[in-house]
Fold this protein.
Amino acid sequence: MFDNASSLILTADVPETPTLVLTPTDRAPALARSFLAERFREWGHQDDYVGRVVVTELVTNAYRHGAGFIVVRVFRDERDGLAVIEVWDHGPGLPVVGSEDHDSTSGRGLLMMSRLVHQWGTRATMEGGKIVWAKCAL
């Protein structure tokens, strides 16, 4: 059994991860890009192109196909040095990578993103909804 003092000590050493909470509007992707660019600048990395593409795709999908507020986190995985981009929403549907349909005018964003990142995936949240995440180079 943990006492309150030891619990506080254990969590006090965990760094806070900056979080952006967005209203699901057409401005959400631009705000998420600015948020990501600031994280990369804090880490001393000016080349944030892939990260901006990824966060734009994930936030746009959450805005168009998800539900509720959109939560964005960007942090470094110290194990491999990659940036992790997480986008949460409360919608039940999971993202699906579409095929290369040359006649379609949309639906290729996840396919493009999947080819730019090292890894990506989804996981359910306890509150309902999902987190879509991707890891990309800094």
Observations:
- The beta strands are 19-22, 70-77, 82-89, 119-124, 130-136.
- DSSP finds four helices and five strands in the chain.
- Residues 1-14 have pLDDT under 50 and may be disordered.
- Residues 5 and 11 are 10 Å apart (CA to CA).
